[in-house]
Design goal:
The protein has one domain (10-246): NAD(P)-binding Rossmann-like Domain (Rossmann fold, 3-Layer(aba) Sandwich). It is globular. The chain is an alpha/beta fold and 252 residues long. Helix 5 (155-175) links the parallel strand 5 and strand 6. The protein has a 7-stranded parallel β-sheet with strand order 3-2-1-4-5-6-7, with helices on both faces. The protein contains 8 helices and 7 strands; from the N terminus they run E-H-E-H-E-H-E-H-E-H-E-H-H-H-E. Helix 3 (69-83) packs parallel to helix 4 (106-134) and helix 4 (106-134) runs parallel beside helix 5 (155-175). It has helices at 19-30, 42-52, 69-83, 106-134, 155-175, 196-200, 205-210, 221-232, and strands spanning 10-14, 34-39, 59-63, 88-91, 137-142, 180-187, 243-246. The longest helix is centred in the middle third of the chain and has 29 residues, at 106-134. The structure holds nicotinamide-adenine-dinucleotide. Nicotinamide-adenine-dinucleotide binds next to helix 1.
């Protein structure tokens, strides 16, 4: 595989300080892209950007809370001022909090919806004017296998990820006439800091999910990053409004 699939392209990745967002940033840069990563974790975000591009020519960090419309405006303005254009948005930022219908508080439900769902809406809204104006763009929304199925203990999280899946399909049709593609990725169990929350809740949750993966192991973040690279690049030019699973067979 060549190393130039994103030459001349600029990407914005929310929640890119660590986990799969940071892995996507690394792979995109290796393939020639300029990348802005954003996060609420300032120190980790700055460190990741420095690691990926010590002189700042290929990667910059911007502090950004995806629930804030004002932060989105500033973050996209920063990207355009720094790298001149925006071709790829990865709506990756997200949180996971375990909870059933019996024990999820309204505040907890709204917190998850605000970050995982409203954050994706605001992201698409923030980049759409620029992308539709240039008649090109790829938006990649990170949903989950929990957005394909019912998952016990994932009440708010599942609702937010189903919403991401639905928005992706609708917005794909809205933006297709402008040459802008919108697709969703549905990861299964990926070994990132988020997965540690499975350990934190105990009850052998992590072991329980691992036994449900037909391939028998958790993925590394780069497995998701490679799929994101495909969707970011022109290799996926004819795919929009589609759902791409990377789950080791979980939802087969
Ligand atoms: N790890 C998995 O198994 C898994 C499976 C399916 C889907 N996902 C999804 O993949 C995405 C990335 O998750 P990850 O596993 O890399 O987790 P992670 O916790 O390592 O990364 C998520 C990042 O989002 C950031 N973030 C949280 N709230 C934010 C906010 N309000 N504004 C900006 N940034 C914020 C976090 O600080 C963190 O850096 C998430 O959307 C998650 O729901 C993860």
């Amino acid at each position: 595989m060549g190393k130039d699939r994103l030459v001349g392209k600029v990407a914005f990745i929310s929640g890119g300080a660590r986990g799969m967002g940071a892995s996507e940033a690394q792979l995109f840069i290796e393939e020639g892209a300029k990348v802005v990563i954003s996060d609420v974790l300032d120190d980790e975000g700055e460190r990741t950007a420095k690691r990926l591009s010590p002189d700042g020519s290929s990667c910059r960090f911007v502090r950004h809370d995806v629930t804030s419309e004002e932060d989105w405006r500033k973050a996209i303005d920063f990207t355009l001022a720094t790298f001149g254009q925006l071709d790829i948005l990865v709506n990756n930022a997200g949180i996971f909090e375990r909870g059933t219908v019996l024990d999820t508080s309204l505040a907890a439900y709204r917190r998850t919806i605000d970050i995982n769902q409203v954050g994706v809406f605001l992201g698409m809204a923030a980049v759409a004017p620029h992308m539709t104006g240039r008649k090109t763009g790829s938006i990649i929304n990170i949903s989950s296998v929990a957005g394909l199925d019912g998952t016990p203990g994932f009440l708010a999280y599942g609702a937010s990820k189903w919403a991401v899946r639905g928005m992706t399909r609708g917005v794909a049709k809205e933006l297709a006439p402008f040459g802008v593609r919108v697709n969703s990725i549905h990861p299964g169990i990926i070994d990132t800091p988020m997965l540690q929350t499975f350990d934190d809740v105990g009850e052998g949750v992590r072991e329980m999910v691992r036994t449900r993966i037909p391939l028998g192991y958790e993925a590394e973040p780069v497995h998701v990053a490679r799929l994101a690279l495909y969707l970011a690049s022109d290799d996926s030019a004819y795919s929009t409004g589609s759902e791409f699973k990377v789950d080791g067979g979980w939802s087969a």
